[in-house]
Each structure stands twice: as structure tokens, then as C-alpha cells.
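Backbone-to-sequence.
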């Protein structure tokens, strides 16, 4: 499943990684054959079976892995803040995972972008007391019928309670539970509504789906994403963080600067090779056959996106 079985890896880390790989493999578009038996339904249907792991990061910040996109949690007397909502079907397991962190109720939810594996739980979290904040484009997509070609799926508008009640455009600062939090919109990258969330004191940076740690990323061209935007967002992340910043990706294990730098090189290298082949007049099938991403396919192509799917996404944008 693209998991690095480094003998030095702890058993706990291994268990976390395998549970993520198992749950997220269901998101791979290769499993998509139509609106009725596709990725979206399968992911939602199987969410209740997900194994959710709680990983303490730094200070009063933790992350829940395995319920869809990674969910960062800030707890304290002013109530919990969640960064992303995961799948609705994982509600019972998310509820008990949150209770294991602290008894504070959930009061706040921020969406890193509009995709269903990050917003499916918006409605129940809102009904449980969370006010939802996101970028204006996230609210736009959740409020209207939105087609994602890469998933061959058309999403109807989200229920009223799931729509963010507050939005921003460029940047936003918050202070909660004694922690300064900086929100920043990326130029279009994975979608047109991606934001980063930086917990300043603890130096934990949630970068949403601009970073997939250990998996080729999905890029949603239907709502403004592109390979060049993904590379620019990764450059922006690298410019922001330090050697001690904890980086929470949208999918995959919690990472750091060196892993993000590797990912930047991977994206830029794939873009360069695939663009050169396309310029020579090669078809997508010919480029796939030339294996331009061979060096990373075994490790990065086993979970979310196959090498062929990733090459197709890059090909589309160069
Ligand atoms: Zn996404």
C-alpha cells in the first residue's frame, strides 16, 4: 500500500499508517465506475468501519487519522476547534476519539477546502454546536451543485447546517484557547478554496490537500486545481515553515520540512518530464508507457492515485 516498512519504524506508527492506507485506498479513482458504485459512495458507505488513530502533536494540538482527510484538533476551555470534518459515517468513532483527548465540546470547525472527505461531517458537527469557517470559494462549492470530473461525480448542494456561516478571502487571524491561529488562502492549487492553518505557538501547520505525504495527490481541475498551482502552494508552504514545524498533510502521515521538500521535488520533476514528452507530441498512453515517475511509483503510487492516474493529472495541466 505504499507504506515504507522501515525496520526502525515503531509498531504504533506502522499501525497508524496501515489503517490510513486501508481507509484511503477506497478513495482511489480507479475504483470509480459510475455514479452508483463509485468512489464517493464507497468512501461514505465504508466510513463507519474506519480505524481512527489519535496522535498528539504539540501543546494542546492533536490529529485524528483515518476518518477521511486528516483532522487537527485544538482543545481547551473555549471548546475544541477541528480542522476538517472527515466522513459523516465515522461520527461515532470521531466522537469517541475526541472524547479521549478532552471533555471540551466542539465549538469551532474550519474546512481546509470543500471536498467531501473533509466536509462530509460538517452537518453533524454543526448540529453538535460547531460554527463553521472556511474560504469563500469553499462555501460557494458547498452551496451549489458541483461536478468533479476526476471522480465522475456530481455533488448536490450540502445541507444548510453544513454550509460555513463565516468566510474570508485572503487571510484571517484567530485567537482561541490561548493559541494564535493564522489562516491563509493559497492561489488555486488542489482546488480554488484551499487554505493553510498555522497554530503559531506550537508551530503546527495544517496544509490541507496541497500535501499528500507518501501518496501521489489528487488534483481537482474541475474546481480550479492544477499541477502548477500544487507546486506553487508547496513552494509557499516551504517558505513558511522551519525545521521544527510539524506539518499536517491532508492525507498520509504527519510530516516535516524534509518530507515536504521531497514532495516538491517529486511534483516539479514529474511536471518537467511529462511536459517535455507532451511537447514532443507524445500521447498520454505513450507517456505512461515511458514511466516518467518510475523512481517513486512503488512507494507513492499504491494508495490514493495510481502512477497512471497521477501522470494523467499532470498531463492535463502542462
Ligand atoms: Zn481534497
Amino acid at each position: 500500500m505504499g507504506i515504507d516498512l522501515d525496520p526502525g519504524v515503531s509498531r504504533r506508527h506502522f499501525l497508524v499508517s496501515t489503517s490510513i492506507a486501508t481507509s484511503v485506498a477506497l478513495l482511489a479513482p480507479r475504483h470509480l465506475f459510475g455514479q452508483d458504485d463509485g468512489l464517493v459512495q464507497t468512501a461514505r458507505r465504508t466510513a463507519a468501519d474506519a480505524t481512527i488513530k489519535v496522535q498528539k502533536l504539540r501543546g494542546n494540538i492533536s490529529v485524528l487519522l483515518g476518518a477521511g482527510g486528516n483532522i487537527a484538533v485544538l482543545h481547551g476551555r473555549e471548546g475544541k476547534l477541528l480542522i476538517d470534518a472527515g466522513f459523516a459515517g465515522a461520527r461515532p468513532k470521531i466522537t469517541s476519539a475526541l472524547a479521549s483527548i478532552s471533555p471540551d465540546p466542539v465549538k469551532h470547525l474550519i474546512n481546509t477546502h470543500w471536498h467531501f472527505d473533509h466536509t462530509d461531517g460538517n452537518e453533524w458537527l454543526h448540529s453538535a454546536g460547531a460554527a463553521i469557517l472556511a474560504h469563500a470559494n469553499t462555501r460557494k462549492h458547498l452551496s451549489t451543485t458541483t461536478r468533479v470530473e476526476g471522480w465522475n461525480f456530481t455533488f448536490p448542494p450540502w445541507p444548510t447546517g453544513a454550509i460555513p456561516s463565516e468566510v474570508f478571502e485572503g487571510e484571517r487571524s484567530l485567537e482561541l484557547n490561548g493559541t494564535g491561529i493564522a489562516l491563509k488562502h493559497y492561489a488555486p492549487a488542489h482546488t480554488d478554496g484551499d487554505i493553510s492553518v498555522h497554530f503559531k505557538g506550537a508551530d503546527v501547520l495544517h496544509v490541507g490537500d496541497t500535501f499528500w505525504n507518501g501518496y501521489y495527490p489528487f488534483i481537482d481541475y474541475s474546481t480550479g486545481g492544477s499541477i502548477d498551482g500544487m507546486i506553487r502552494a508547496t513552494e509557499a508552504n516551504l517558505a513558511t515553515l522551519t525545521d521544527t514545524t510539524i506539518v499536517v498533510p491532508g492525507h498520509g502521515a504527519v510530516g516535516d520540512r524534509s518530507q515536504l521538500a521531497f514532495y516538491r521535488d517529486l511534483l516539479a520533476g514529474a511536471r518537467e518530464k511529462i511536459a517535455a514528452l507532451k511537447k514532443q507530441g507524445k500521447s498520454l498512453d505513450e507517456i505512461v508507457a515511458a514511466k516518467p515517475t518510475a523512481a517513486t511509483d512503488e512507494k507513492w503510487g499504491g494508495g490514493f492515485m495510481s502512477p497512471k492516474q497521477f501522470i494523467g493529472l499532470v498531463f492535463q495541466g502542462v
